[in-house]
Amino acid sequence: MQERSSRPSPKATFWSSDKPQEKSTTAPARWTLTDVCVELARPRPPKFCDLLPDLDSTFTHILEILSFISQWPKIKYLYTTRTSLCSRLNSTRSTAKSVRSSRLTTSISSLERGLTSIHAVAKQYISTAPLYAKRQEVISKIENFWPLVFEQSPPDVDRYITPNDANIFAKLKSLDVKRFEIPMGPEKIDAEAGDPRSIVIRFGFDDNDYFTNSVLEKKFWYRRSNDGWSGLVSEPVKIDWKDAKDPTEGLTDAAYAVFEARKKAGNMKKKDFPAHNKLVDMIENWNADNTSFFTWFGFVSATRYISADESAQANKEYKQRQDRRSKGERVESPEPEEEDMADMSGDDEVHPEGDELAQLIAEDVWPNAIKYFSKTPLSISN
Predict the structure, then answer these.
(1) Measuring CA to CA, how many Å separate 22 from each of 16, 29, 168, 172?
(2) How far apart are CA 360 and CA 358, in angstroms?
């Protein structure tokens, strides 16, 4: 039997045995959940007790909104702003009754809508499209431009490129990034037209010793699931590898086979069939430290594949919830079912960070290509 901890009990820490109603000036060196519960249960002045329902309601609303969040880097600004709002609330406890949780919720909901504003992103994309088209014309005349860009790419991208991958990138002749769900033309911008965060990344290659494809195109759709998750999903790309030249050692082929089998069966959650079991076994025995960049072409989702129909319905319900919250109503957020949690285990995903890599290419490498090229010895000598 394990010995009990010798750490003083929370009760002994906060109250002395002689004066049970007086709080000690010494707080625990390290707070535990028990400490917090005991402290909250301690008798408090009436005015502070009156504030607890408001604070509890506010905290509940914050937790509901945080349940939408799946990836920290994408919502850092929003999270920081939330923290600021909560700090302002805590700093005005004496007048907390005048700072209602509905006002805080409305502010946060407004930030959430601003974060996903299709009009702002769409207009920016359309206004800069001619500039990128002109840039493409110029850099197409520079020999080895894109191989040199990836050679100087940021560490978060470079870490996925193995020495063997570098030999393939030496044959990269073009790169293009489009936000394909944005209709070209300001007068056509509509909230129902699509999501500007959906992207397609197109790689053009010269003849090489690794595959016969001249173009490898990877599409990412920004979608929302019926359990509240939102993010990028994709479909595996078929790469026609030459004999014994596959740096992924069959992973992309296996991911493609599983996706096609699920699509044929009409069940994108299907598991425990031969192709799926083979893929899971390959992933379990794969050396993660030697993961090829080209496994990225087999990426599907950080959770599970979301269909266009499910996303359309989920977006409709999400908008309805946001509208009700803006009116001060308390609305429960959807939570994944136990079955959906099992589907999100990711045991059959060949490149778990595929969505992050796609965003790095689209939002860093692509717009800053000339900056990275200018770091190469070739550009300096020229």
Answers:
(1) 7, 19, 72, 73
(2) 5
Q: Are 208 and 171 in contact (CB under 8 A)?
A: yes
Domain ranges of the chain: 44-115, 118-381
Whole-angstrom distance between the N-terminal and C-terminal Cα of the chain? 74
Which residues have C-beta within 8 Å of that of residue 137, sequence separation ≥ 6? Answer: none
Choose among 213, 285, 228: nearest CA to 251: 285
What does CATH list as the number for 118-381?
3.30.1120.90
Tokens 């079991």 belong to residue: 277
**Per-residue pLDDT reduced to its tens digit, 74-123:** 444 444 544 554 454 444 443 433 433 444 444 444 444 444 456 677 77
The structure's pTM equals 0.67
Question: What are the C-alpha distances in Å from 69 to residues 64, 178, 226, 298, 352?
Answer: 10, 25, 14, 25, 17
pLDDT digits 0-9 by tens, 334-377: 776 655 555 555 689 999 999 999 999 999 999 999 999 988 76
